[in-house]
Amino acid sequence: MQGEFEMSMMGELSFFLGLQIKQRKDGTFINQAKYVNDMLKKFGLEIAKPQATPMSSSINLDKDEGGKYVDSKLYRSMIGSLLYLTASRSDIMFSVCLCARFQASPRESHLVAIKRIFRYLRDTPNLGLWYPKDSFFSLHAYSDADYGGVR
């Protein structure tokens, strides 16, 4: 490739498109802790009370047609930021996608649910993906993304 393209070695890859990459002898760890902290600051939630789960198992989100409207631009911005984060955080996928259903007409109850996801991230910014070096490549992922919320 060096014959076709101008290339230079800039050292070990540690940050790429918002992904923090930590390469060790036994594998590679990918997370987005910096991105999480930047999001919390952007939305004014850096000192919010942490949560142990992204969504309460007793929550029942619906259209909430009688609820108070919230700023749809802010709501969509929060959803978009969280969707980008799911590249390394499958644990929030269910909760984010559930909240994303209400982007057309977000209400206060939906914003409360989104903020809970951010509060969960405040408590768990360093979670990510671990790829062991000596394992054969066969991707298996298990995630109870709705945290036992089956009814």
Automatic annotation (TrEMBL):
GO molecular function, one term: kinase activity
Domain of life: Eukaryota
Cleaved signal peptide residues: none
UniProt KW keywords: Kinase, Transferase
Domain Reverse transcriptase Ty1/copia-type span(s) in chain numbering: 1-56
Keyword Nucleotidyltransferase: no
The keyword Lipid metabolism is annotated on this UniProt entry: no
InterPro entries hit by this protein: RVT_2 (IPR013103)
Protein's name in the database: Cysteine-rich RLK (RECEPTOR-like protein kinase) 8
